[in-house]
Amino acid sequence: MRIEVTPADVAASRYAVSPLGETVSALRLHAGQRASDGLGPWVARTRPAYERLRREVPAVGALLALLRRGGYNADFIQPPPDGTARDFHGELAVVRATPLAQARDELARNLAGPRATPPAYARRIYAAPNVVDLIADAIEAAWQALVEPDWPRLRAILERDLVRRAGRLLAYGWGAAVADLDPRLRWIPGDVGVIEIDSNDPDTHSLAGRGLLFVPTVFGTLIAYVEQPWPYAIVYRASGVAELLGPPDPARPDDALDRLVGRSRAAVLRALALPATTSQLVAQLGLSLGGVGDHLTVLREAGLVSRIRTGRAVRYRRTPLGDALVAD
């Protein structure tokens, strides 16, 4: 696949996060359809919730039976964000608004070709008159069980990556913005630059001044949207993911920071590369609530972290002194 871009497309390009896309990708990660790539601790922590979801919501299995690599996946299940900062429920409303005829056509295309036959219960769901709502209900249940509890930190990772990506595009142009998105993507410079992506699509697509939508992902992988009516979009893996979602590796040898402030307190300080609540740190690090609270008190008194209130939530973040102490 080739996507032609020009300098005029820089100003028209947009950036968005997709909580619904993260939900579908998190399901695929648990189902073994995606490599964990450092997310093993998160998968292990949320595995009981995923297994309960599979038992209690049959449509989750039907949804997973549709998803495959190297083939067409029904577009209405995971439409790209439109760049209007929709939250999860706004994105889910777009799914629920899919006309039944469109869903039937996309499901038929999704299920065509050589592949394993979906189980009987899944075929009954696909044939149901309320198939769109059943699939949307499955996505909503997955959001509540797997992604919503961690969403503040996930969103912070994604938004941080977007700021970095937008800055590189505006300051240095297309080559700097897309060159490190994914190993399967190549930048070919020229008067009309080309983003070349390894895929089964041999066609060339031109942005023609419409710009490109950048969508970072924590749980997903490279996806290029080039079919109408969706905007031209590239979903790519955000940077700085693995160290923020799981506990530290117990086999890692102590470094100078561990020896200075203690291994657990150092882990709390490292985890605050992005703001987090006490409960998020407990879930991430596997420490007790009291232990995390004690560590935060000491770190705050030492001037290494500060508190910020967002609505009813209190989040902690590193101070410049904390950043300097954690830096290599």
From TrEMBL:
<dbReference type="InterPro" id="IPR001845">
    <property type="entry name" value="HTH_ArsR_DNA-bd_dom"/>
</dbReference>
<dbReference type="InterPro" id="IPR036390">
    <property type="entry name" value="WH_DNA-bd_sf"/>
</dbReference>
<dbReference type="InterPro" id="IPR011991">
    <property type="entry name" value="ArsR-like_HTH"/>
</dbReference>
<dbReference type="InterPro" id="IPR036388">
    <property type="entry name" value="WH-like_DNA-bd_sf"/>
</dbReference>
<dbReference type="InterPro" id="IPR051011">
    <property type="entry name" value="Metal_resp_trans_reg"/>
</dbReference>
<feature type="domain" description="HTH arsR-type">
    <location>
        <begin position="255"/>
        <end position="326"/>
    </location>
</feature>
<protein>
    <submittedName>
        <fullName>ArsR family transcriptional regulator</fullName>
    </submittedName>
</protein>
<keyword id="KW-0805">Transcription regulation</keyword>
<keyword id="KW-0238">DNA-binding</keyword>
<keyword id="KW-0804">Transcription</keyword>
<dbReference type="Pfam" id="PF12840">
    <property type="entry name" value="HTH_20"/>
</dbReference>
